[in-house]
């Protein structure tokens, strides 16, 4: 039985990532309107910068520290992290098995508060 496009599972999603030894590994898997869902699993360091849309990370595996606008907080599997558009953020000191879902949505500049 074929998996429907609206059902994403971690193992097959991670298998779509490019095999690179360091840096950014990211793949979009689902898009609908302004919403985009992807999987992100950087290696060695997280090179990303601020994004133009609001986003949510849902940690699949691994642990580390999440830095947002200068604040540092530990993360673990199943944590959900919200990042408003334009916020400086990155993952640091993460384990080798770190992977996360990434959800982007809304207008450039983010949703109004």
TrEMBL record:
The residues covered by the Cupin type-2 domain are 39-101
The protein's matches in Gene3D superfamilies, at most eight in alphabetical order, are given as: Jelly Rolls
Q: Which domain of life is it from?
A: Bacteria
Give one Pfam hit by family name: Cupin_2
Q: What is this protein called?
A: Cupin domain
Q: Which organism is it from?
A: Nitrospirillum amazonense
């Amino acid at each position: 039985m074929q998996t429907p496009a609206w059902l994403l599972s971690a193992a097959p999603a991670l298998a779509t990532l490019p095999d690179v030894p360091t840096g950014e590994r990211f793949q979009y898997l689902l898009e609908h309107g302004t919403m985009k869902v992807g999987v992100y699993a950087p290696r060695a360091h997280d090179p990303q910068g601020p994004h133009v849309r609001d986003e949510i990370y849902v940690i699949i595996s691994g642990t580390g520290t999440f830095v947002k606008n200068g604040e540092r907080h530990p993360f673990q599997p199943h944590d959900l992290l919200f990042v408003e558009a334009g916020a400086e953020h990155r993952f640091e000191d993460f384990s080798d098995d770190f992977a996360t879902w990434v959800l982007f949505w809304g207008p450039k500049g983010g949703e109004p508060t």
